[in-house]
Amino acid sequence: MVTLLTVMAVTLLMGVPVAFSIAISGVFYLLVESSVPVLVFAQRMVVGVDSFTLLAIPLFLLAGALMAEGGITPRIMRLAAACVGHIPGGLAVVMVLSCMLFGAISGSGVADVAAIGSIMLPAMKSQGYRPAFCAALLGCAGSLGTIIPPSIVMVVLGVSMGVSIGKLFLGGILPGILAGGALMGISYVFSVRENYPRLERASGKEILEALRGALLPLLTPAIIIGGIVQGVFTATEAGAVAVLYAFLLAVFVYRKVTLRRFFAVCLEVGRTSAVVLFIIAAAGLFGWILTAEDIPQKVATVLLSLSREPWALLMLFNLLLILLGMFMETIAIILIVVPIFFPILQQVGVDPIHFGVMVCVNLAVGANTPPLGVDLLAACKIAGIPYEDSFRYILPFVGAMVVALALIVAFPPLVTGIPDWVMR
Hints:
Blueprint: H1 2-13, H2 18-32, H3 39-49, H4 56-69, H5 72-84, H6 90-106, H7 109-126, H8 131-142, H9 152-161, H10 165-171, H11 173-193, H12 204-229, H13 235-253, H14 259-292, H15 295-306, H16 310-325, H17 330-347, H18 352-366, H19 374-383, H20 391-410, H21 413-422
């Protein structure tokens, strides 16, 4: 076990991508510490991705990409501006709400950052907003796509934990709104202090026109979640329905995507999906080795000897996730850590849906904590500023998300209330 973790740590420090670090450490372990044939390496990686449900990942990615290509982003931003643009620091609040609405379509934090940031950041710069402030806010607001359904991270969690993806989707609604509201509050404080401008208040007619323009795209999460909850289709089939719906909007309704561009988008999504699925495959081998070494049972014995209080174990687990989130990618953390800790927390009565959504919120925080901070890195790149410039503003925004996480941990009904009511 020491060999496995040491090799992975060394390769990560050398700058080797996470997926390859996981795979290399697994192969090295099989060669040095085990008599198992190396052929098992390939077998376990194939088994790791041999899941019908995982097909939902490329499908949701494709649906989100088609929506972004189809001119959906300006429609969503126009609705957000009409609703909250008159608040002090209007464009900052509009950015958060736009990320929340687009997150309900894309299911991806990085996609959220790219789609909203490419349009919002130039507009905010022209209004006098500090680029570092905009980048920090964009990174955190974009990461809400990890929490708000339909989230790709929730699909991976549902497969890893063996729980209902539909319930995870429903459980993410209130936490996503709570985290978004916290970011809006911090944006308001900064905007008042730094005297950022606000937009003119929209009339009722303008709000209705903006809503009419964004209505068809915003039906996407309703179709996906409604279909899953009602048992009309599975999560994977919901992804296929979302792709068909996005294709019809982008190609035939809004006429923003040609068939040639459609195939180019499919190729781009294929590359992204390959990266994600390779991480899952490598983590399948890594998880198999951990199980063979009885690591989950050993960790459970140690933790349960320290305390059997759910709150204490949840606190330790969340601190570990925040620490790992500073150095590792979201999906890698899920596939390595969750299979170890989920059975332990189940033993002390933690609800699986509460656990899963809590992990999503925690990893959204990790996506914005240096030195890795994938979403924050993407936001700084779009803003055209050095990564370290955003550090001045990132702490208050991350702090707001941590407060939202603490409330979710302390009050499970914030997560379980809607799933229990809808799917009882």
